[in-house]
Amino acid sequence: MPIKAVIFDYGGVLMTYQGATRCFKDLAQRHGVDWAFVQECLLKQAVLQHVSDETGLDLFRGEYTCDELENIYIPRLSVQKGCPMQCPVPFVSTWMGDEKHQQYAEGMISALRQLPALGFLTGLLTNNCYLDKERKLRRTPIDESLFDVVVESAVEGTRKPEERIFEICLQRFEALGVLPSDCLFLDDQPENLEAAKKIGWQTMLVNPVDPNSCVVELEMLLGVRFDDSSSSRSSCSQESDESTLLT
C-alpha cells in the first residue's frame, strides 16, 4: 500500500542513546555513585520496573515525574542494592532536560525535514515523561512544528505498546484523511511495532545505536531518495544492549 504518513518514535530513532551513557557516567563519577548500579538499574530500566512493582505507577503515563524518580525511587533502590547514594543525583533530568546531552540522528532528522516537500505527512509518537513535580516540563528537545501530529504518552496517560496510545494517534491522522494502511511507523522496540501492526500500520525497525544507517531502508519503503545527509548508507540490523535505555 502507498504510504502517506511517516510516524517517528523519538529516542532510538531521531535521537541515539550514545549521549545517555556518557552523561550518566560523568554524573556517577562526580557524585561517587556505583557505576554497576547505574548500568543495571538506570540504563536498563530496572528502576522503572521496580517502581511499577512497588507502586503500580508508570513514569511514561505521567503517573510520577523525573523529580520523584530521582529524589525518592532511585535513592531508595540504591539502599536496597547495598550501594546507597549520598544525595539524589539528577541522572535522568540532566540527560533528558539539557539539549547538550542529546545526540541526534542527523540523517533521520534530515529525512524528516524533507518529507513534507515529498508529499508525506509526519507524526511523532513517543513515550515521554514529566521532568518536574508541577508537570509543566517534558523532555522532547525537538521542534514539534516538524510534525503534523504529536502524541506524547505522559500527556495522554497511556504509553507504548498499549493499544490506546496508537488509537489516539490513528484518530488524529484519520482526521487528516489518512487510513491506517497509509501509515509507516518507525520505532526501535519490536513490541511497539507489533502493537502498531495490530491497528493496520506498516512498520520499520530502527537500530537505536545508529538510526542513520536505516535511512536507506526508509527510502526504499517510501520510494524516494533523500538529499545526501549525514546518514550512513549501510545495514540497519546492528544490535546493542543500549536499546534498553530509557526512551
TrEMBL record:
Keywords: Acetylation
Keyword Acetylation: yes
Segments for region (Disordered): 228-247
Top-level taxon: Eukaryota
A UniProt-annotated Pfam family: Hydrolase
Signal peptide: none
PANTHER family recorded: HAD FAMILY PHOSPHATASE, HYDROLASE, PUTATIVE (AFU_ORTHOLOGUE AFUA_1G12880)-RELATED
Protein name listed in UniProt: Uncharacterized protein
Organism: Mesorhabditis belari
